[in-house]
Design goal:
Length: 193
């Protein structure tokens, strides 16, 4: 047997003895809110998770005088690309955390902003004060806004035990400890004043 064949056999034997990486799971559940009108302003998230996370670009549009979607979830280092599909000019700014003002831009123009600090950033338009949206920037990508029924799913969470928290613009709920396995985890929240 050649030295090359022996090395290949040794590598194969070593790989067979290493434990397989545990599969990621999905954290899911439901959130209810009292009063229910504030439910749509909710994100469920893993407070801290180890790892490095490749930056990505997320889109936040302006359509029919609304930010669409109402909440986008990002990770520190991500860039949000702000679109304008209304047939009028908009201004996008946030007074929160590091604060920014992207100026006024017309239909089909875009602006971008890279987030360097975690936090929640209100998205406002100085021309149309009734417009309000949010960019939730986490330490990690394991977060999800709730849907209209209060359901959420945080996919591809590595196995482990985490603090699961909730952000809402007006209401509060206590953090919970959750253990994620390949079969996932279920956790529900009740938001109150």
């Amino acid at each position: 047997m050649s030295a090359r064949t022996l090395r290949a056999a040794a590598r194969a034997a070593l790989l067979l003895t290493l434990p397989a990486a545990a599969a990621a799971g999905t954290i899911k559940g439901k959130v209810d809110a009292t009063p229910p009108k504030y439910l749509e302003d909710t994100v469920v998230y893993v407070k801290e998770a180890k790892g490095t996370f490749a930056p990505k670009t997320i889109q936040l549009d302006q359509q029919n005088m609304r930010f669409v979607p109402h909440i986008v979830v990002a990770t520190v280092g991500d860039t949000v690309k702000f679109l304008n599909h209304d047939n009028l000019a908009h201004n996008v700014y946030s007074p929160d955390n590091e604060g920014y003002n992207l100026g006024t831009f017309k239909q089909d123009e875009t602006r971008t902003y890279a987030f360097s600090k975690p936090g929640v950033y209100s998205q406002l338009c100085s021309i149309h004060p009734e417009m309000l949206g949010y960019v939730f920037v986490g330490q990690n990508p394991y977060a999800a806004p709730v849907d209209k029924t209060g359901a959420y799913q945080i996919k591809d969470v590595p196995p482990g035990t985490y603090k699961l928290a909730i952000w809402n613009a007006k209401l509060k709920a206590a953090e919970k400890t959750v253990t994620v396995t390949a079969s996932g985890a279920d956790e529900n929240f009740s938001l109150k004043r």
